[in-house]
Amino acid sequence: MAKGFLFPLKDILLFWLIVFLLSGFSFSINDCFDQREDRFDKKKKNPIVSKEISFKKALIFSLLLAVFGLIFASFSGKEVFLLCLAGVILIFLYSSPPFRLKGKPPLDLITHGFFGGLLILFFPFLFFKTQLNSFHYLLFLSLFYFSAILELRNEYEDYEVDKRGGLKTTAHILDYKKTERILRYLAIFYSLFLLPIFYSLSQINFLFLFLILTILFFTLFLFFENHKLVKNYKLFDCYNFLAYSLILLANL
Question: I need a labelling partner for 54 at 20 to 30 A (CA). Which of 28, 115, 143, 187 fits?
Answer without folding.
Answer: 115
